[in-house]
């Protein structure tokens, strides 16, 4: 069963104008899900993580309802039927 | 979201690029510069600290840096004045992993010398210089500055540790001056391999040693192509001139209400004439006495005169930031500046009189101006033999996908979704 990744509208334009993406295979961590995501949609990488591979400060990634920032970060486990949400934080000015 | 309007500029028109904290605008007028049309906003909602216009080799290419709290900073371009925007699929300006640095913002975009038409430079935060030798398709950091031994001691100023000023020498292709807040001015004489601090005589008011080798908060450096050994410098406290390419600096704050300020611009034709907008103190950071005054020297800093005609002289608590003052290259020089309160003023007579071009913009952080034409100037004196080529015969060069920076061309309508 593919893992579902939901992305915001701005990023959809770098993923074939789709907000919901399916990752086939069985990635076990958020890091592996993101790697699979970059392979399919290279335009997403620089917008979600910085040059050092860290998730940008004002982006939140959830596995189900759990923010990875408060779990194990990019090492947070992802189960086969999980939904991963990538959400811009409430920030700006 | 605001409706995006587009303007295009025929040759012999003047454009003024305005970067704001909520997007980029393109102002256009004919040579008279009395009536202006406004294009934009582009990169709606995004701080745009850097813009540039590259018209070498017949291009008519806008560059700007789109910053986002969420998605990072990306260098965008357009060959049709913003109607079609090229935002790279993968970011073209980024630090190598081994540097352990991450890009925060792009503060300056500078086309290289005219005889090196595919070279461009970017100044970024954290302080570094990037260069492109393929007309902006791919970029790499200048290693000599990236690995400079002074780097661990550079301190961020109020805006961050930014490389904000890039001055490719007008005659020596190996020479360039850059300025960093807060590190000071640095010069290379070997094409970027090595860089030497060039702050001799420049005051660092906020340091125990007021005249250190480096650590000054230089806000802007300008050069005139007719006299490249002469440079002018607006410091965080201090106004200076160098007559030896930056080896030494002399205080020229003669008759200004404050020697604090951010911006500085050179006259396009007269190497003795420079413009500044003094600001009262580094605490208040507004125009002194509530008067919005541009100051002009016509004798290389021996004296300065206030230019006030058409500018508010009451209750004008304005701030003009370091990249928000520019000149065009018309025979009768245009001078333009933007304020943090969102006003853009222009003069078509070298600063003698001013008119508001537009008000109500978001805070202005960047102003660039250009006369549109193959040689970038309408002055017969400066055009020389190029005059016969005449603008209008050139063709616009379209961006092409290349390497890891393959750009995705998108219409502005969809681009506008990059709202913050």
Structure, described:
- The complex is a heterodimer of chains A (93) and B (420).
- Chain A is built from three helices and five strands; from the N terminus they run E-H-E-H-H-E-E-E.
- Chain A has 93 residues and is α+β, with helices and mostly antiparallel strands.
- Chain A has a single domain, classed as Ubiquitin-like (UB roll).
- Chain B has three helices and 29 strands.
- In chain B, the strands form eight sheets. A four-stranded antiparallel sheet of chain B has the order 3-2-1-28, with no helix packed on it.
- The C terminus of chain B is likely disordered.
- Classes of the chains: A alpha+beta (93), B mainly beta (420).
List keywords for this structure.
heterodimer; A: 93 residues; alpha+beta; Ubiquitin-like (UB roll); 20% helix; B: 420 residues; 4-stranded antiparallel β-sheet; 3 helices; 29 strands; 35% strand; globular; disordered C terminus
